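Hello Y.,

Per our agreement to keep a running log of every chain we model this quarter, I'm adding this entry. I've kept the format consistent with earlier entries: sequence first, then predicted structure.
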Amino acid sequence: DHAQTSKTPRFRRTILPDMLYPTKTALIIRNDLAAWQKVNVAAFLSGGLTHHFPEMAGEPYRDADATVYTPLIREPVFVYGADADTIRRTYERARNRNLTFAIYTEPLFKTTNDGDNRASVAATPAAALDLVGLGLHAERKVIDKVINGLKFMGV
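Predicted structure for the entry above:
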């Protein structure tokens, strides 16, 4: 298997030459979702993480005409693909390290608002959550341990 991970030397040289931050953000998304679902999950998880960890946001952008745009996340977001069992294992690793993290579950594809989303999760015991995505942000070394063995999505 020749899949690149964040520890692959060539990846580090070409993608991360001078971008080492003390924290790391990782999204883990179930591989078997439709393309629109993967993008949707990534957007929701990123939004949730940025709300909970406001230090993730950079400064507003401004173009040469002085048009102001919203800030973006200030550091790379690493996106990993995984099957359901691997997502569950990663979820348990994050919980065992007492991380605060974002989740997205399969039933949320059928709801239409935040209140129903939260009610769906609240009605489900942790062991029964049908996880399709996780969003993690913490000290780099902690995230590396939680995501150990995962492969980048699409690689």
